[in-house]
Amino acid sequence: MSGRRRGPSTTRQEILDAAREVFADRGVDGTTREIAQRAGVDPAMIAHYFGSKGGLFEAVTALQVDPADVIAPVLDADAADAARELLLALVRTWDAHAPVLTTLVRSAMRSKTLAGQMRTFILERAVGPVVRRFSPDDRVETRAALLASQITGLMLTRYVLRWEPLASADPAWVADHVGPTVQGYLTGPLPED
Amino acid sequence: MSGRRRGPSTTRQEILDAAREVFADRGVDGTTREIAQRAGVDPAMIAHYFGSKGGLFEAVTALQVDPADVIAPVLDADAADAARELLLALVRTWDAHAPVLTTLVRSAMRSKTLAGQMRTFILERAVGPVVRRFSPDDRVETRAALLASQITGLMLTRYVLRWEPLASADPAWVADHVGPTVQGYLTGPLPED
């Protein structure tokens, strides 16, 4: 009979697969009950493996991309090329994972907790390391916020609003057109605070 | 007995007031049934006055601000000051109407229809007129998309992600720090497409 029992790693993976589908369809409105149904497991298994819907959502999105891998080549770039390398890395990554990342952004809009997690995530894992690496001064927080304003807006305009010509442009076009802004926020002179 | 009947303009206004509260609480998840209950009217009255929840949502948000009023002083500015005037006008308006505008942005994230309406609204009523007024060439669509990428990201970072120091900065700080980017997208040289 043991052949009919699924092992823990299979159950965990089936929950993750189901959650990815449900979150992609319905964002954070997707319920653990729907996810459990789709995975064919008892809802208690979700609590067992992931603690809560929030924990499950984090696991689903964390699986997609390790920001350290995305950022690594940027940190090795010359300062003068940093913005271009950052934009190429981000846009290529987003393009490859657009549905889940769009869901993540959409969901972050709806929940203060998720918005806070998203801010922390972007800051600590993506924008923060790049700003600390290339900032010519100690105004790291201002540069990070400005960088975030352009990068999140790019994501929003390209993937959620689907605003042309930005929505269909290739990554190099985006790097060419938005690069000077990002480079300015990263290494350029800033006005007095 | 006619004193007990509410006239059409009162009913319409009561529906709008109720809808503003429900949408502020729950975004587009708020149902017409909840809105009708809160307004103390039959749900058929919502269909009668606004056609649908989408129509009601438009009426609620349209009531807040007339973009033509916001944009008017920008269109009168010198080209060299256009970005600064645009940012001051937008940030002051957003600050004064932050809850409803945040709800609008959040909701636009969740629905392709609303995202399309938001894109059309921003383009036709705010970004479009400014770009057409100040663009030194015929690359109006590219300039509008780039402008949208910075402006929507500013809104997102300041009001939804609440990212400091951008979230608490006064409008002049925002105009100082983001102005050069917006000015570049509006009137600066662009790379070849």
Automatic annotation (TrEMBL), chains A, B:
Q: What is this protein called?
A: HTH tetR-type domain-containing protein
GO-annotated molecular function: DNA-binding transcription factor activity; transcription cis-regulatory region binding
InterPro entries named in the record: Homeodomain-like_sf, HTH-type_TetR-like_transc_reg, HTH_TetR, Tet_transcr_reg_TetR-rel_C_sf, TetR_C_16
Q: Name one Pfam family in it.
A: TetR_N
**Keywords on record:** DNA-binding
Residue ranges constituting the HTH tetR-type domain according to the UniProt record: 9-68
**Gene3D superfamilies with a match to the protein in the record:** Homeodomain-like (1.10.10.60), Tetracycline Repressor, domain 2 (1.10.357.10)
* Positions of the DNA-binding region: 31-50
Q: Which domain of life is it from?
A: Bacteria
SUPFAM superfamilies of this UniProt entry?
A: Homeodomain-like, Tetracyclin repressor-like, C-terminal domain
Which residue stretches, if any, does this entry annotate as coiled coil?
none
Tell me if DNA repair is a UniProt keyword of this record.
Answer: no
